[in-house]
Amino acid sequence: SNVNAFFVPIHNGSSSRNSAKLTKTSLFYNSGREPFIMETSPAKTIIHKHKHVIYRPAIRGGAVLDDTGNMNTDISHQLQATACVLLPGCLLEPQQYEDLAHAIQNQATHPVWVVIPKLFANMANPLTVPQALKESIHALQSLGYPSDKKVFIGGHSLGGVFLPQWFDQLDPSVRRNIAGHIHLGSFIMRQHREEEGAAYRSVPRLTVAGDLDGLIRSSRIAEDIKHHVLDPIDAGHDFNQTRMDHSVVLIPGMNHFQMAKPNFAHILEQSRDLPPEISKEKAIQATASVIAEFMEIHQIEDDRNDQRKKSLLQKIKHTEDYLQPLVDAMKLEGNHHLDTPCNLSDDDSCTVGSPWVEKMQYYMTPEDVREIADISDEFHRVWYTNPFADPPFYHPEVKSKGDIDSRKIEMETVSEAVYEKPDFFFDGGFFSNTAVELKSKLISPQAMWDALGVSTPFEPGCNPCSKMNELTIQYAIDHAPEIVRQRYIKRGIKLQAGRDIEHNNGPSWIWSHLDFSKEGKCGDEDEPCRIIDSHTMYTALDHPVPTVGGKLYCKLLSPARVLEWMYTDSLRN
User: Fold this and answer.
1) How far is it, in rounded angstroms, from Cα 46 to Cα 343?
2) CB within 8 A of 27, min separation 6: which ones?
3) Dihedral angle at the C-alpha atoms of 356, 360, 365, 369, nearest 10 degrees?
4) Beta bridge partners of 502
5) Among 302, 409, 486, 542, which residue's CB has the most CB atoms within a 10 Å radius?
């Protein structure tokens, strides 16, 4: 057992005062000290403007509590107490986090205060949250938490997504008291990530979520890791210190709502959540363990810190290994959330095109030509037209270079990554953040041979675009972590490439999209699956419109979208 084995909930807002008999329990304090008797004071009601719920650690008997029943500040210093204020998720009551608050106190090796503010209409919003945070900190100090000790602030779900914004809105005097941020089932929004010199970067951050979170997708957490952890390390920042400054941990088998007690108001959100693989008790204990380690690493100075850091780094490394395939696939896609496409930015770090489209062009290249082919892709709006340009739209090109003995061909393809529309307006992790399709304008084999001076007949083949989508699905299966692959095989809704739907004009092809809702039966056991038909326009060199001749237009699956499907969408009930 440890010093937080007992805790006292203080429900603010009621005018009544409860009286109860003190209880005594024999405990061992895990620091090599002698056994002692711990007294737990009764539940106590204190009037505050907001009906916050404060969980106060029960420390050693009368020396800790003053005449009013509050903690002695000198003893708080001696025992190196820590504190955190956790904002509830949307429509959730403070009392629904009681089990988590208890678990944090039990997992820590030092006293921990936990405050769950009561928010107006149970909604975290920028008008009321900064004041709630300020009042929570003042309430802690009025109950004996030292005014010169810092406090962690955090939040679950919507309560955590906006933390950087609320941190910026705090008075500088309050902001100086913040030790770090704790994002539960949430992350740092893109708008804050892109701010130069953002205030939230001045304190350490922790993200804890479940790897079966159906509302905050694993792909969104992967995006966060790429920007806040992998990029700084690539830029030369210290390997371990970067992970301590921005720690990301996914709890295996946990979903979004296991951190809080059930609430009838979340029927819609729960229908989007994924079935968990661990019990609620295990989920809360695992979450609390990470939170306690993070807080004590950054605020407690004792001989256990090396052990805490080692334990936390192991969990971080497991998370990064779990998400690395998603990061790699998003890079292959040319995901615009990782780096801005060059057609929309002049930044030196912009993404020119999709490496995956280049791979698919290579796949379509005859084997005799592959060794001399130089392929590059560029992002453009495939629907964009400029009546003053020749040609008036972006199209792929192929040309030969060198003499007959050193002949090479250069192919420049055109692609456009298409994303779910809500993803542009609300960065909440709810919607897919990978491309739902890659509109790709490729070069046909006939055009390649023609560039080399070889005349060949036009052979459209059978479902060339869908065959490339088969390769994409297989890539995702081959590169997924073993636990993701097994979940997908055992209970996931499979994806299967269907047929090519042919179009005979550009606009028809442009505005036809991949459909993930077509249901079917797949495999030897006729398992439920989604059949993805592609859309194609395959033209001969002698097409009536010369600039369209010798092209293969395909709607391609992104490898990141297929992996995201395996991690999250395939597992929905």
Assistant:
1) 59
2) 1, 2, 3, 5, 35, 36, 37, 38
3) 20
4) 536
5) 409
Q: Is the pTM of this model over 0.85?
A: yes
Per-residue pLDDT of the chain (573 residues; tens, 9 = 90+): 333 333 344 433 333 333 232 222 222 222 232 222 233 333 333 334 457 888 888 654 434 455 555 555 555 555 688 999 999 998 899 989 999 999 999 999 988 999 999 888 888 888 889 889 998 998 888 888 888 899 999 999 999 998 998 898 888 888 999 999 999 999 999 988 877 778 888 999 999 999 999 999 999 999 999 999 999 999 999 999 999 999 999 999 999 999 998 876 566 566 789 999 999 999 999 999 999 999 999 999 889 999 999 999 999 999 999 999 999 999 999 999 999 999 877 777 799 999 999 999 999 999 999 999 999 999 999 988 766 666 678 889 999 987 766 789 999 999 999 999 888 788 888 899 999 999 999 999 999 999 999 999 998 878 999 999 999 999 999 999 999 999 999 999 999 999 999 999 999 999 999 999 999 999 888 899 999 999 999 999 999 988 899 999 999 999 999 999 999 999 986
Per DSSP, the three-state class of 203 is coil
Written as one letter, the residue type at 316 is I
Tokens standing for residue 437? 């399709």
Structure-derived torsion over alpha carbons of residues 103, 107, 108, 113, reported in degrees to the nearest 10: 10
Identify which of 223, 419, 433 has the alpha carbon closest to the alpha carbon of residue 327: 223
Kindly compute the dihedral angle of the four CA atoms of residues 160, 164, 253, 232, in this order, to the nearest 10 degrees: 180
Comparing C-alpha atoms, which of 119, 115, 122 is closest to residue 139? 115
At 552, is the secondary structure helix, strand, or coil? strand
CA distance 45 to 35: 31
d(CA 135, CA 139): 6
Written as six digits, the tokens of 442 are 């490729």
Surface-to-core class of residue 404, CB atoms within 10 Å of its CB (0-12 exposed, 13-18 middle, 19+ buried): exposed
Contact 462, 496 (CB under 8 A): no
In angstroms, the Cα distances linking 553 to 410, 449, 506, 518 are 18, 18, 9, 22
316: left (phi over 0), alpha (psi -120 to 50) or beta: alpha
Task: Identify whether the C-beta of residue 140 lies closer than 8 Å to the C-beta of residue 151.
Answer: yes
Interior angle at CA 273, CA 272 and CA 277, nearest 5:
150
Cα 136 off chain centre by: 28
CB-based burial label for 190 (10 Å; 0-12, 13-18, 19+):
middle
